[in-house]
Write a structure and sequence with these properties.
The chain is an all-alpha fold. Among the domains are: about 90 residues; about 120 residues, no CATH class. Helix content is about 75%, strand content about 0%. It is built from 20 helices and no strands. Helix 4 packs across helix 7 and helix 7 crosses helix 8. It comes from Salix dunnii. This is GED domain-containing protein.
Length: about 400
């Protein structure tokens, strides 16, 4: 195991106490009035019950000295607030000032506790990533999942500094690209990288574009890894599609449309549509060279396909939308050919003359790929009239 049992138990106890303090501080910050400062309120009960235990914990960790000071200030302010129960002007002003101060100090306590939790989380995750064989797989995946959730809470400068100093991105990338590691761990590392990009794209996007991350994600060949790729494309847009194309990953991505795994094929279709929207001429040419239109025609012809052009032709727009949604739930490949053509037409990566040229090429390929004139007529009509979702 990564740590000995006593150490893990101690960290768990500390975390439990600090989480309770954090929640109590949050409650006081949200409701700092006199009623919250009464001795029988849940937040005050939590603070009083944890006072002795937290003092012991805080004295053993120098990184929590500031938190100890904040707690002392908060106790003093609470005492002052509880004593100012009179109806005079002086009591009123004291309560007003104390209430504002309590809210401010409670906010500082919450931030300090979260900073400590972030430091401990990064330390634990770094140990697990450096020695993945010394920790249970499910435990490491759980740590990674918690880290992903933390990033998705929004930007935090202190957390960003911790991430940059720890150089954890390099470890996440290395494991994502290491076929000897378990796929569950590799996939979750990739999800954390995707969350990092959304956390602060300006800082971390360069490491994705210049590193091996794209190859690592595609090489996993799973629906989860393709979901990560879709997220990265939506965040980074055309520059990422450029890298996908220049790294020669498009043939591999298009091949996933032939896999038996339905979930993988569905997410791959989403990825193909995203590449079509953000891709420049070279990326679109690479997809067409791999026969993407023919593969989409076959998917649309399958039991999970169909034609949206025949759905909800009558009635108002809202009813047509409901009909399409219900149909797509059971037919994820419905009108996927038109969906691809429309993405190219409305997307950001192509010039107008390139869009017109690709549309003609797509129409020609459709006619050659269809097994009947009726099928060809329907799909061509969808492409021309844009009856895709």
């Amino acid at each position: 195991m990564m740590e000995d049992t006593p150490s893990k138990e101690e960290n768990t106890r500390v975390l439990k106490v600090l989480e309770a303090l954090k929640q109590a501080s949050h409650d006081l910050q949200t409701h700092p009035g006199p009623s919250s400062a009464e001795s029988n309120s849940p937040s005050i009960k939590a603070l009083l019950e944890l006072e002795t235990e937290s003092d012991t914990i805080l004295s053993n960790d120098p990184l929590l000295s500031t938190l100890s000071e904040h707690l002392a200030s908060l106790k003093s302010l609470l005492d002052t607030l509880q004593k100012s129960c009179g109806h005079g002007l002086g009591s009123f002003l004291t309560r007003r000032v104390s209430t504002q101060s309590i809210s401010r100090v409670a906010g500082s306590i919450e931030l300090e506790i979260q900073a400590w939790i972030d430091r401990e989380s990064i330390d634990s995750l770094m140990k697990g990533l450096k020695e993945p064989l010394q920790i249970e797989e499910d435990e490491l995946v759980s740590l990674l999942s918690q880290f992903e959730d933390r990033f998705l809470q929004g930007f935090n400068r202190e957390l960003q500094d911790l991430v940059l100093k720890s150089k954890i991105f390099c470890l996440l990338e290395r494991i994502s690209c290491d076929p000897s590691c378990s796929r569950k761990v590799r996939e979750q590392c990739a999800f954390v990288v995707s969350a990092l990009i959304r956390f602060n794209k300006d800082v971390f996007v360069g490491q994705v574009l210049m590193g091996r991350m794209i190859h690592g994600v595609v090489s996993m060949a799973s629906w989860k890894s393709m979901k990560v790729l879709c997220s990265l494309i939506k965040s980074i847009k055309s520059p990422l599609v450029d890298e996908i194309e220049s790294n020669g990953e498009i043939p591999k991505i298009i091949s996933f449309l032939d896999y038996k795994d339905l979930h993988l094929r569905v997410v791959t279709l989403d990825c193909v549509l995203d590449i079509g929207y953000f891709g420049r001429k070279e990326a679109i040419e690479a997809m067409l060279k791999e026969g993407v239109v023919k593969k989409l025609v076959e998917l649309q012809r399958s039991e999970l396909g169909g034609d949206l052009i025949d759905i909800g032709m009558f009635g108002d727009e809202r009813e047509r939308g409901k009909g399409e949604t219900r149909f797509l739930e059971n037919h994820p490949f419905a009108s996927c050919v038109a969906g691809f053509a429309v993405q190219l037409e409305v997307g950001e990566g192509l010039r107008q003359r390139e869009k017109r040229a690709f549309k003609q090429e797509i129409l020609k390929t459709i006619r050659n790929a269809c097994i009947s004139k009726a099928e060809a007529a329907t799909i061509v009509a969808e492409v021309l009239w844009g009856s895709s979702p």
